[in-house]
Amino acid sequence: MCGIVGYIGKAQAPKVLINGLRRLEYRGYDSAGLAVMDGNQLAVAKAPGKVAALKDRAHAEWPEERFSRASTGIAHTRWATHGPPTEVNAHPHLDQSGDIALVHNGIIENYRALRARLESKGHQFLSETDTEVLAHLIGECNKGDLFQAVCDALHQVEGTFGIAVLSAREPGRIITARRGSPIVIGVGDGETIIASDASAIVAHTQRVIYLDDNDIAIVTAESVDIRDLNNVPVTREIAELGMDASAAEKGGYDHFMLKEIHEQPDSLGNAIRGRLDLNLGTSVLAGMGTSARELADLNRVVIVGCGTSLHAGLVGEYAFEDLADVNAEVQQAAEFRYRNPIVGSRDLVVAISQSGETADTLAAVREAKQKGAFVMSLCNVVGSTIARETGRGVYLHAGPEISVASTKAFTCQVAVLLMMALKIGRGRRFSRDEGLKLARDIEAIPTLVAKVLEQDERIATIAATYVNNEHAFFIGRGPMYPVALEGALKLKEISYIHAEGYHAAELKHGPIALLVEGTPVVALACDIPGKDKVLGNIEECRARGARILGIITEGDHEAAECMDDFIEVPACHPLVATVPAVVALQLFSYHVARLRGCEIDQPRNLAKSVTVE
Fold first, then answer.
1. Per the CATH hierarchy, to which homologous superfamily does domain 449-604 belong?
2. What's the whole-model pTM score?
3. Partners of 565 in the beta sheet?
4. Is 379 one of the catalytic residues?
């Protein structure tokens, strides 16, 4: 949540910063700001709204020569936590003297106590933010050495932070630090770029350094000096980013979300390629880092995640129990971290996070490790904190996901969970023949998804029927129940239609009271065990005037006759069918939101990477 960019080098800093913010706008778009060194003083521009508004403000307020001569600066795009998205609450924030500028991701939990202490010393605050308190605290600690001032201030801070700090008195360097909020440093030729996400760096360099928690770095155009908060030098290796700058562009599509939906045959192919053994009927997931004996001896699999990742985990729960003959359960990561979970050395805890930075999921990882469990991760971002802290797991290889509403990350998560279940199952009860059949079904997932994408125009036509509804229900059974949850989430995220997902059997235990003439019910009625029960639930809804949109198996005329509208998905294994089914719902939600005129890639109040609790 929120995006940080810092630059020091030989290029025009304002241009680099604004372009970087554009690439990070999916992380926060309530307001934006930047501060650059202009000679021996700081120049600051801020604006509520999106990065385009900041660009207009800077060009209106700053002389053109400032753009050409400023080669050092920091910038931020905000997702509001403390105080509404106004110009005064936008970052960067200055200290009392006006000589120090700070951009910050995260939350300073003890900011009220710090603010009261600083006010007693005469500090005056302009904003409602916790970040301004930290800026003033650094200024209070500054005795002529910005690095030491930042160290001293952060020792007094409780909470999470990713920060970049600039001082008019020390124009040749930027100080950056992190705890619980990502910071990556791009090492270029005579220039250095700081960001909260590598997508802001990829246009400049492929060489990056990922900071660990409690790292603090002194960054110049030619060097990166990393220490801990006690000023002890630490070593962090330079990694290759392996990201194409074009992946963060729309590529001719109207929205990133539509592009990412249509990228799924390729992203799924990347997630699956080289990971299936069609001779032994198993999967090859070296990153799991466990032996066959350890997998055979597992007592339980516990999956933790939030939002879309949680829904993928629910599909995984069915897969682990049905295929691997192992007890499985899914827990919301925030719940896991604050309860006293019972896990031990024979339990496998799987943490799922697209960004690899989700605060609650990261805390769940640390709790599970503390209790001695096997811990591994499913992440999309190479070098992310969760991936590094677990030390084992599987990367999704879905490619950058810019739209806030997750699409290809979800389907790749499900595909990888199916392969994990296959691998564990082959070591427990699954025969080679059964394994071969499932492996071939998994291998076919990209083709199955491509067949759904061919129906894009037809799905858009169906979506037009549902544009004016303000409420909708999604129902399913078995592994299609989490698909119903994910479908409802997608619709509410981007179209602002109130949508709820239910197990089909639960609808008549209360929610059916809300059905009136024309209420949409989206029914996952694919050809899986329990389909006949779903068809019965559909009849109950029709009897109360609901309009039924069915997701059905191709050629299932019996199911089609129960629907007002239907979208067909190819016949396949019931667990595999969750992937093409959810792609159909992604397209449906996209077209509903498009026809309603919604801001699809950046829906209100949402941000991509949730690095606060």
1. Glucose-6-phosphate isomerase like protein; domain 1 (3.40.50.10490)
2. 0.84
3. 549
4. no
